[in-house]
């Protein structure tokens, strides 16, 4: 750059006209490069630069000198030194100058040189040379008085990359076209492998998996990858996948040539080997991967929004009528209710579970349908039903424990806990599988335990408190704590251990699922905590501790 600046300062001494700082004055006549930046291949033969004249006074003849200046490219090695004078006759608005480019077989980085305009002269109709003060209108060299010409070396096989590293598309787009560009050379045929990599977007569900190679022919600098996008018509969608470029490869003959160079065999010098190896095709590590985000189609979202505005939302979650609820309660279903194969025939286990749970199905079929009183009737009756069922399970377990000789404390932490918590566990597992995050499972288990504790126990204790408050002159209900304090301490300690494990899992492997070994070890640890709690509480209840 010092060399360029020195050349500019030397050339500046020959400029005899004003050099404009801007193009804001409409009365000014200007001569300048348009455009000021040029990019040419090394083997193009010559760079063609355009000099334009514009302004209100086009009836005069204008002369301007030009010459090339060295940049990172040198005259005689990369281009031929060029200088001369252009004559703009009245009415002429543009001229072109060609600078010959020297093509060699040696790999070089992309280089540039400059061309500068200077010494602007104006001639009137009589042929007399006019000074700037002797004419009514003004003339100057415009702000684009210097042009930059970049020579793209075509001896390099090229650096390959994506034009951008992120992009976002609508899921209804049909297909997406991604450009791969070839920079710093375009010599020879190069094969560039590519493949799609799923992330939150799944291959086969959100997009069609694609893997292959792009063939860049000689002098070709851009190719396109086309990937089909599958429209799932999801209202809220924010998924992504990646497209990666692999290591470029050349024709077998060139591959063998580079292999020879790598082994340092033959009569080539170290410098020749270094230059030749620099010309190998490569991938730009900073732009070898592009992230493609898939978002919901605005047209689909608008259509759904309009439909929802016109539609009664209670219809979407409605259970129809009591008759429909009793029909569903008496029908044997195959597998889970969410099973995708709705036409599957129920098996033996389905019939066994159906008849074991039939009484509960019939009881809850009496719950009002969801479209009665805006869903409030269903909500209130369902909560009451769950509370009654929990109280029934507690009393049943207490009688069972009394029959087999087990204390109420042991019955509560074993049979009652299993009877109410295990279904919650499976429901939470289903919620976690059906959701992208653990939010649904956390909400499910929290809500279920709240219902079991506050309704199943809280309502029963409240009713008992009111009942006993009017008897024997006592206020409230006296309950002997028994081993409750010991069980709470054990539970709190184990809860802290469980939270510590979850924090560890968050850092290594994920809180839910994760690697098989870590998943099994975590599950085994949680089961051990349960049995330890159960054993310690039983030992305390029977005074072994």
TrEMBL record:
A family per Pfam: Na_Ca_ex
Q: Which reaction does it catalyse?
A: Ca(2+)(in) + 3 Na(+)(out) = Ca(2+)(out) + 3 Na(+)(in)
Q: What is this protein called?
A: Oidioi.mRNA.OKI2018_I69.PAR.g12475.t1.cds
Q: How does it sit in the membrane?
A: Multi-pass membrane protein
Q: Where in the cell is it found?
A: Cell membrane
Family to which the UniProt record says this protein belongs = Belongs to the Ca(2+):cation antiporter (CaCA) (TC 2.A.19) family. SLC8 subfamily.
SMART domains associated with the record: Calx_beta (SM00237)
Annotated signal peptide: none
Against Gene3D superfamilies, the record matches this protein to: 2.60.40.2030, NCX, central ion-binding region
Q: List all membrane-crossing ranges.
A: 373-393, 450-470, 482-504, 524-543
Main subcellular location: membrane
Please provide the record's keywords in A-Z order.
Answer: Antiport, Calcium, Calcium transport, Calmodulin-binding, Cell membrane, Glycoprotein, Ion transport, Membrane, Metal-binding, Repeat, Signal, Sodium, Sodium transport, Transmembrane, Transmembrane helix, Transport
**UniProt KW Aminoacyl-tRNA synthetase keyword:** no
Ranges where the Calx-beta domain occurs: 17-118, 147-246
